[in-house]
Amino acid sequence: MQIYWTKINKIIEETPEVKTYLLDCPEGFTWEEGSHTHFALEGFNAGDKPNRSRIRHMSISTLPHENAIGITTRIREQCSEFKTILKNLKVGDEVAIFKTHSNVPLKREDKNVYLLSSGVGLATFRPLVLEYFERADNVNRIHSLNIDSSNDFLFTNIFKSATDKKFTAQFVDNRKDYYEAVKNLAADKDGLFYVVGSDDFLVQNIEVLREQGIQPEQIMLDKRENELPKFFSFDLSM
Question: Where is the FAD-binding FR-type domain (predicted)?
């Protein structure tokens, strides 16, 4: 396993609670849209065993041509040891990244794509949307639906409806409106539905989509293949 040590190049305050850490691209480090990585803080590998409290599984919110590895995360006032350390890091400080992989690259199957996310989960979809804007081949259109109760919606400069690009962005701040919108989107029985958020959020979305007749193979989760069965297990009793 290769560990890439790199420096924080810039810190962007996206909203009062959300920051993006832009990291220098180490030589030989590559990724594609929909990628996640293990993001680790200094001292994580100082002992005999990795200090897991200093490692987090994070989505990369940028594309390679942006020449920076973007890590976008929510940091609340009361937060974990990891987030407390991260909150105090500055430009020039070192962090590590390793085990980078994409579970949700953009599928080009001549279908409509629906991106369903909660809060900062939208960071996973930012690179997919940028990739689509650059090359729309074999994607009919994309619709993004994001729920964020804080009302501080992310990346609104990118996630804005554009008729010429066949892209629509929808933001809601409550569960009722969100799941009503999911049901409406699921009227497209041939669409591809990407879902990013907490495990509970994934399960609830899958239940709603399956009730509307959407098949498991049409639902993409940012999870390893061996983790997928637990999210679709309730299908066994249907």
Answer: 1-107
